């Protein structure tokens, strides 16, 4: 839609996780390094957590794209499953058919598959996205799958990716055994203001055809303040900014345009309304202290690379705001799609009107040309066969000189050599005889 206007080969802020646009921020580089270490070392469970829209799925895409051909990947994105359904989903994703099998039969078929892959020097990687939706029985079923191992290593490597409440779920006493098998863990933090500016302009450069359009720092700082540095919200604001700029034919992005966009997104519910919090507001003072058992680290192995941060002060207002954004994502996408469809329809109407005007110009030019040719032919024929066309107007001045004192009607009558109407009237009234 706005790609041609801003000389972009594609939309740089699309919500789909495209690894080509992965910005190597500090946190994303660290998280990707931990993921690669956990997969290559085959050292048990890997856990990656982050807020909604922090870039977890894009990070997974970058990891999977970087794997060699010796890795077999099963990836689950729908995690609202019971333990039996989870096992079936894993087998389906590995190319096995569990139809009609009992659970022991499925486990036996899966074990044979994993052993065959290991004998072929292939690594089997099970990636579970949105793992915070798994129930305790399903998580325990995954732990049981990790019991499939040889004397040297595990037959399947498990990566759990989810929102921060996955950490709280893993702290449950029922999952103590699973928690002890976590060897690599990392929590994705939001971008800071300089990283947000670099992130936005990095994506614009990747999508540019010629000289890239760049957002000034004052604009990126305002976007950071409203998005809290979450990449998905940054993308939503920047994409809407380009749509507004295109609709208003603004080549440069300034603060006034961004403020219009933020107001529109707030009014439509895409973004939560901006609130000013008092500096003395201390949410932590009202929160009860957590038991010591909950603040214990999740990993006890010396091979730990990073620990899941627990016991942090939770900002209840920010949690509610983030949850509201998550619930309003479908409505936001629908409104943006309607806006794009409206602009696309208007472009088509303008293009159709331009075609009609050009066709009318062409028809009028053709008619004018035909009229000129017709008059030219008529003039040529009149010159050859008779007096010129059109005939010359009568010379009334010559008639007046020949018969001075006559009124115009009598001048025409004298010119014709006939008695005029006014001369006959004068004769009847006794003004004089009729002459001629």
Structure description:
The protein is of the alpha/beta class and 436 residues long. Among the domains are: 165 residues, P-loop containing nucleotide triphosphate hydrolases (Rossmann fold), CATH 3.40.50; 33 residues, no CATH class. Helix content is 52%, strand content 7%. A five-stranded parallel β-sheet has the order 2-3-4-1-5, sandwiched between helices. α8 packs across α9 and α10 packs across α11.
Would you spell out the secondary-structure blueprint of this structure?
Layout: H1 26-41, E1 45-50, H2 56-65, E2 71-76, H3 83-93, H4 103-119, E3 123-128, H5 136-145, E4 156-162, H6 165-170, H7 176-180, E5 182-188, H8 193-207, H9 217-227, H10 231-247, H11 255-267, H12 316-385, H13 396-402, H14 408-416, H15 421-428
Parallel strand pairs: 1-4, 1-5, 2-3, 3-4
Summarize this structure as a short list of keywords or feature phrases.
single chain, 436 residues, alpha/beta, Rossmann fold, five-stranded parallel β-sheet, 15 helices, 5 strands, 7% strand, elongated
β-strand percent reads 5-15%
Please state the second-level CATH architecture of the domain at 26-190.
Answer: 3-Layer(aba) Sandwich
Highest CATH level, the class of the domain at 26-190: Alpha Beta
What is the name of the CATH topology of the domain at 26-190? Rossmann fold
Strand arrangement, major sheet:
2-3-4-1-5
Mean pLDDT: 79
What would you say about this model in short?
With 436 residues, the chain is an alpha/beta fold. The protein has helices at 26-41, 56-65, 83-93, 103-119, 136-145, 165-170, 176-180, 193-207, 217-227, 231-247, 255-267, 316-385, 396-402, 408-416, 421-428; strands spanning 45-50, 71-76, 123-128, 156-162, 182-188.
């Amino acid at each position: 839609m706005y790609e041609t206007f801003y000389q972009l080969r594609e939309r740089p802020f699309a919500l789909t996780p495209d690894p080509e646009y992965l910005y190597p921020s500090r946190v994303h580089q660290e998280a990707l390094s931990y993921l690669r270490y956990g997969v290559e070392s085959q050292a048990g469970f890997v856990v990656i957590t982050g807020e909604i829209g922090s870039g977890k799925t894009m990070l997974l895409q970058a990891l999977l794209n970087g794997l060699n051909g010796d890795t077999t990947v099963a990836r689950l994105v729908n995690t609202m499953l019971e333990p039996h359904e989870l096992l079936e989903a894993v087998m389906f994703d590995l190319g096995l058919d569990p139809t009609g099998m009992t659970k022991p039969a499925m486990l036996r078929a899966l074990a044979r598959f994993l052993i065959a892959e290991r004998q072929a020097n292939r690594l089997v990687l099970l990636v579970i996205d949105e793992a915070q939706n798994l129930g305790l029985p399903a998580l325990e079923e995954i732990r049981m799958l990790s019991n499939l191992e040889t004397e040297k290593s595990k037959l399947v490597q498990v990566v759990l990716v989810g929102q921060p409440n996955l950490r709280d779920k893993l702290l449950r006493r029922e999952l103590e055994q699973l928690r002890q098998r976590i060897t690599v863990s990392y929590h994705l933090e939001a971008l800071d203001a300089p990283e947000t500016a670099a992130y936005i302009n990095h994506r614009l450069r990747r999508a540019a055809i010629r000289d890239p359009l760049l957002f000034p720092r004052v604009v990126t700082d305002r976007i950071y303040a409203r998005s809290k540095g979450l990449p998905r919200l940054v993308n939503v604001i920047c994409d809407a900014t380009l749509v507004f700029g295109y609709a208003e034919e603004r080549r440069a992005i300034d603060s006034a345009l961004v403020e219009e966009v933020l107001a529109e997104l707030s009014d439509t519910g895409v973004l939560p309304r901006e609130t000013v919090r008092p500096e003395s507001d201390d949410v932590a003072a009202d929160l009860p202290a957590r038991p010591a058992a909950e603040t214990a680290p999740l990993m006890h192995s010396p091979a730990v690379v990073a620990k899941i941060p627990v016991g942090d002060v939770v900002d209840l207002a920010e949690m509610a705001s983030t949850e509201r954004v998550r619930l309003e994502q479908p409505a936001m996408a629908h409104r943006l799609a309607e806006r794009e469809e409206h602009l696309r329809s208007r472009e088509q109407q303008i293009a159709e009107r331009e075609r009609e005007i050009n066709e009318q110009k062409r028809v009028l030019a053709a008619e004018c040309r035909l009229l000129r040719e017709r008059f030219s032919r008529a003039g040529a024929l009149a010159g050859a066969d008779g007096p010129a066309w059109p005939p010359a107007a009568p010379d009334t001045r010559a008639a007046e000189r020949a018969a001075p004192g006559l009124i115009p009607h009598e001048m025409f009558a004298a010119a014709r050599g006939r008695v005029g109407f006014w001369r006959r009237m004068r004769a009847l009234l006794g003004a004089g005889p009729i002459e001629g």
